[in-house]
Design a protein that fits this description.
Layout: H1 14-40, H2 46-67, H3 71-94, H4 115-129
Length: 134
């Protein structure tokens, strides 16, 4: 017997599908990047590389929470992500010596087409406007 689809009906189509796609993409990209950085270049920029790993964990949690419609966890993860992008983005410009290498959130996510800055805002709006799974 097939397992039931645990996603909210709103997440199966349109903007919900795009939201889950981009969170999944960032989860994979940030995880791959942080594993590589931590395992091969940690001594070069430990602050930046640990922050990349933190970002990866947040993207994985946000993706899983959105897909399974755990609204509170999704809102929490997306809110932490937004704060992280703002704080790390600002610090990457003002305290450059702590960021000799970039993180996912450096420059407000410029290395990822500013998706890390835009995505949590869109996700929070989307989560507020769509009904939870019943």
């Amino acid at each position: 017997m097939a397992e039931p689809d645990r996603r909210s009906p709103a997440l199966r189509t349109g903007p919900g599908r795009l939201l889950t796609f981009f969170y999944g993409l960032l989860a994979v990209a940030a995880t791959g990047r942080s594993v590589f950085q931590l395992s091969t270049m940690f001594g070069d920029a430990p602050t930046a590389y640990v922050l990349s790993a933190v970002a990866a964990v947040i993207y994985v949690v946000a993706f899983a929470a959105i897909v399974t419609d755990h609204r509170v966890l999704a809102v929490l993860a997306c809110s932490i992500e937004l704060v992280g992008v703002i704080v790390v983005g600002t610090l990457s410009y003002t305290v450059r010596h702590d960021f000799p290498q970039t993180t996912v959130w450096s420059g407000y996510g410029y290395g990822y087409g500013y998706l890390p800055a835009v995505l949590p805002v869109l996700a929070l709006i989307y989560l507020a406007r769509t009904p939870a799974r019943s």
